[in-house]
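Reviewer 2 asked us to include a model.

Predict the structure of this chain.
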Amino acid sequence: KISIGNGYHGSHGVLSLYQKLTGAAILPLECDAQELGKGDVIHLETPVNPTGEAFSIRRFAEKAHNRGAYLLVDSTFAPPGLQEPFSLGADLVMHSGTKYLGGHSDLLCGVLASRNQEWERGLREERTFLGSVLGNMEGWLGVRSLRTLGLRVQRQSESAGRLAGWLEGLLVKGRTGDGHVDGDEGLVQRAVEKVHHASLQHQDMEGWLREQMPNGFGPVFAVTMKSEMFARRLPSKCELYQHATSLGGVESLIEWRAMSDDTVDRRLMRVSVGVEQWEDLRDDLMEAFRALIEEVDRGED
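Predicted model (structure tokens):
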């Protein structure tokens, strides 16, 4: 059995193929622990794609191990330096190395790590027969990228937290007024329904979250817009953010997520923050919101 929650649609696609081949049962992430048994797997993606919200690794490790199951953590959205899943009980850790480990949008790479030496030997043998190894050029690009991993990810995560907090602050300020809000607060309140990011999980901060992510809460956040129309139009109003489906590079990207994942709210925007000045990214978003609202006010539906 495999217990899995929301997250990257590609993982669900591969799991669907695996289920066809093996007949494995797929359970929800928050299934009853009694449904798990020896050798089963909990697949935990944290922070989760596309919202950047986090789950407690330690809690799911305990749930798995109490039943003889294993915990696999997809830590793509929190690369080394932000999150260390093994220290919190993970049995396996995976990364889409194409994203933050690569960091420059120019290589394809996948990482699966284990501290179990027997598993490691088995994975190496299987890789030999399957041929799923990096080419020389990709290996060289990966080494180049790891030299700046800490610098890049720390800045990207810090900027994402600042941007998410700034937007959330404008929403809160807008909601506590007398019903009529002018200025930036009013524009954001008209366009944005909700901001998603691990840094905004205030109820978890003094429990497990700050321990799990002591150096930052991830470089990806998401915004739920007031309408699908707003979500479709917003990327075209941005100058610094590129409208693209990838993430993890040094350039900032924004995506109307429904274009590549039909399981999400069609109002959702995913934002992958690059290494630009966060103030410039903030101002670009604000100008995009302003242009969007002005377009609506002119009746350009």
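The longest strand covers residues 220-225. The first helix runs from residue 9 to 22. We have added this to the supplementary material.
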